[in-house]
Amino acid sequence: MHELSLMESALRIATEHAAASGATRIVSLTLRVGALSGVVPEALEFAFDVLREGTAAEGAELHIQQEPVRARCPCSPDELFETSGPVCLCPRCSEPTADIVAGREMDLVSMEVETP
Amino acid sequence: MISPAGIRTISIQEAVHGKNLAVAHENRERFGRCGILAANLLSSPGAGKTALLEATLRDTHVSMPSAVIVGDLQTDNDARRLGRWGATAIQVTTGDICHLDAGMVQRAMAELDLSSLSVVYLENVGNLVCPTSFDLGESLRVALVSVTEGEDKPLKYPGAFKWADLILVTKIDLAAAVGFDRDTAITNLKRVSPAARILEVSSRSGAGMEQWYETLRGRLPARERKP
Ligand SMILES: Nc1nc2c(ncn2[C@@H]2O[C@H](COP(=O)(O)OP(=O)(O)OP(=O)(O)O)[C@@H](O)[C@H]2O)c(=O)[nH]1
Ligand SMILES: [Mg+2]
Ligand SMILES: [Zn+2]
C-alpha cells in the first residue's frame, strides 16, 4: 500500500499551501494520476479517507483525473498515440514501444479552500 | 477566483513524489561524483535478490569493491548473509513500509565510505508494486523474475519490469524442473519492456552470471572521486 505514503505526501503539500494562503479548511483536492503511475485510484481514495482525519482536509472531497499513456513509435516519430498501458502497442505497426512520453505522473493539480 | 461562499481554487501543479525525487536526485549526483554504479534490485519476495548478490560479491567484490543497502520489512537476515564476503551490508528495516525510498538510502549512504566503492547495490523490499514508484537515485534498475513464478508475472505486475534497464530471469537451474516456458516468458517481458536487456541467470549453478558481471562492469561510471 504505497498509496498511503503517496497520499501522506499529497496531504502535506496541500496543507502547506492551505496554511500559506490563510485558508481555514480544504474543501476538495484534485490529483492527476497517469495510467502507468503504479497507483490504484481506489487505494488512493481509501488512503485519503484514513489520512484526512484531523487535518485541514477533514471532510474534503477527492477528485482523481485519470490520464492515459502517451507514447511514440519509431515507425512514425512525429505522432503521439494514446493507450491505457502497460503494453504500449503502436496502432500503426502493432509493435510495443519503449518511448513513453506521459502516463507516469501523479500530481497534485489544485485544491479548493475556504478562507475566512 | 473568489466564489460567493468564500471558497477559492488554488492551482498547485506539483508532483506528489516531489520530495522523494529531490532526494533521489541528490543521491544520484553523489553516486555519480564518486564514480559509483548504484543498482536498484526489484522483485517479488524470494525471487533471488540476496542469493544473486551473495554470488556477485563472492565473485566481484575484489575487482569492484561493493556495498549493499538492503531493505527488509522485519529482519536483518539478508544483511547477515551479504556480510559474509567482506562487503559492508546495511540493513534498512522498513517496518510497515513496503519499499525503500530515497531518504532511507540517503541515511544509509552516510554510513558508507563512498570513496572506496565502485558499486552500491540497493536490494529493495520484495514487492513488485510499491518500490516501482520510488526513485532511489540509482543509475541501473534491475528487475528479477524467477522461473518458478510463471511466465505471465511481467503482464500481471508490469510496473517493476517496464522501467527496468535490465531484467534477470533467475533460478534457470530450475527451468526444466518447473516446465518453464522460456519463449512465452521472454515474449511477455519484451512486450512490457521492449528496450530492457534480458539475461538468464542462476546464482546456484553460475549460469549466465559472467554476462551479469560484464553488464555491471560496462555500467561503471568514469571516476572523479569527490564524495
Ligand atoms: N535453485 C535455485 N534456488 C535459488 C536461486 N537463487 C535463490 N534461490 C533460493 O530461493 C530462495 C529465496 O532466495 P533469496 O535470495 O533469499 O530471495 P530474495 O529475493 O532476496 O528474497 P526477499 O529478500 O525475501 O524478497 C532461497 O531459498 C534461495 O536459496 C537459484 O539460482 N537457484
Ligand atoms: Mg533478500
Ligand atoms: Zn509503430
Q: What's the quaternary structure here? A: heterodimer
CA-atom Rg of chain A in angstroms: 18 Å
Q: DSSP helix count of chain A?
A: 2
Protein chains sharing the most extensive interface: A-B, 37 and 35 residues
What's the overall average pLDDT of chain B, rounded? 93
Query: Biggest sheet of chain B, in brief?
Result: 7 strands, parallel
The total count of helices of chain B amounts to 8
What is the general shape of chain A?
elongated
Query: Which fold does the CATH topology of the domain at 2-68 and 103-114 in chain A refer to?
Result: hypothetical protein PF0899 fold
Q: What is the 3D shape of chain B?
A: globular
| CATH superfamily annotation of chain B | P-loop containing nucleotide triphosphate hydrolases
State the secondary-structure class of chain A: alpha+beta
Percent helix of chain B: 25-40%
- CATH class of chain B, named Alpha Beta
Strand portion of chain A: 25-35%
Number of DSSP-assigned strands of chain B: 8
Main β-sheet description of chain A: 3 strands, mixed
How is the secondary structure organized here?
The complex is a heterodimer of chains A (about 120) and B (about 230).
Chain A: H1 2-20, E1 25-34, H2 41-51, E2 61-67, E3 69-72, E4 81-83, E5 99-102, E6 106-114
Helix pairs in contact in A: 1-2
Chain B: E1 7-15, H1 18-33, E2 37-42, H2 49-60, E3 66-72, H3 77-83, E4 88-93, H4 102-109, E5 119-123, E6 140-146, H5 153-156, H6 158-162, E7 166-170, H7 182-192, E8 197-200, H8 209-219
Parallel strand pairs in B: 2-5, 2-6, 3-4, 3-5, 6-7, 7-8
Helix pairs in contact in B: 1-4
The structure holds guanosine-5'-triphosphate (GTP), magnesium ion and zinc ion.
Architecture overview:
The complex is a heterodimer of chains A (116) and B (227). Chain A is an alpha+beta fold. Chain A has a domain at 2-68 and 103-114: hypothetical protein PF0899 fold (2-Layer Sandwich). Helix content of chain A is 26%, strand content 32%. In chain A, strands 2-1-6 form a 3-stranded mixed sheet, covered by helices on one side. Chain A has a 3-stranded antiparallel sheet with strand order 4-3-5, with no helix packed on it. In chain A, helix 1 packs across helix 2 (41-51). The longest helix of chain A is centred in the N-terminal third of the chain and has 19 residues, at 2-20. The mean pLDDT of chain A is 95. Chain B has a single domain, classed as P-loop containing nucleotide triphosphate hydrolases (Rossmann fold), CATH 3.40.50.300. Chain B is 33% helix and 22% strand. In chain B, helix 1 (18-33) packs parallel to helix 4 (102-109). Chain B is globular. Chain B starts with 6 loop residues before the first strand and ends in an 8-residue tail after the last helix. The A-B interface holds A 1-2, 5-6, 9-10, 13-14, 17-18, 21, 23, 27, 31, 36-39, 85-87, 95-98, 105-116 and B 5-20, 97-99, 101, 129-130, 132-134, 155, 158-159, 162, 190-195. Strand 6 (106-114) of chain A pairs antiparallel with strand 1 of chain B. The structure holds guanosine-5'-triphosphate, magnesium ion and zinc ion (ZN). Guanosine-5'-triphosphate binds at residues 43, 45-51, 78, 126, 170-171, 173-174, 202-204 of chain B.
